[in-house]
Fold each of these.
Amino acid sequence: MPKITIRKAAIEDAELILGFVLKLAKEEKAEHEVETNKEQLSKTLFGKDSTAHALICEADKVPIGHAVYFFNYSTWQGKNGLYIEDLYILRAYRNLGAGKKIIKHLSRIAIEKGCGRVEWSVLDWNTPAIKFYEALGAAPQDEWIRYRLSGRQLKKMTRS
């Protein structure tokens, strides 16, 4: 069994993260939606005004996945929350405990920062991920529907 470790990502990891993002998008059948590049990730994850953070997961010092997260806020709790934007492990390294180790790591960060919760989204057809999250004790939030403005609709909203 390989030794799984989690480390804070550095700007030198931008290309690695981009590769993981592209693999994740392919698995989610959404390659066409990826708009970012190495330079954009470098700026938004590691720049002076960055509000997002990244972790690299390694097996015996070989990068096998990543997580990207940021802090949001709950008025009901009066506390920040930690939102996991991406959690990806290369297919060949799944079922070794790497995903669970990342979620434990992020949960510790959330507790250290005084967060009231950790949240993420999963596609409704991604049964393996859903089973994994439920095995961790996570509960789906079925009563909430997530909405999004992006692209043309976002620009249109600014003109109305």
Amino acid sequence: MNDTQHFKFTPSVWLVPSLLLGLMWLVWGVEHVCRINLAEHGINPRTFAGLQGVLFSPFLHANVQHLANNSIPLFVLGSALIYFYRELSLKVLVYGILFSGLLTWVFGRNSFHIGASSLVYVLVSFIFFKGLYTQYYRLIALSLTVVLVY
């Protein structure tokens, strides 16, 4: 990145991460209010039924603390992703969910895996390595700060 490149702030920078988090909080709220446990829809490694968790696991959380711990880094990194890499952001989010979920399905221990932590790590990795590649050190600093606080 050079100093002549300008970024455009639009509502989508915060809207898309807000909608993603809103869906996660809505799912947790439904679980809590209806007293149901959707954890069995998480990733259950190396089982055919466990493949559904590749898509569902980022939206399922064990408790409010688990969800809160994922919310801030996901919002910050998601907003940064859209702000700096708008044209790649949808691909990074979709492929990040799919590939991290599939890796968990292949290599995870035999229990249900839920939560958006793998997506947070995908975003940290993407922003960190893209910052290295483009020599935009503010992105590296952002990703390392999120990891330290996370």
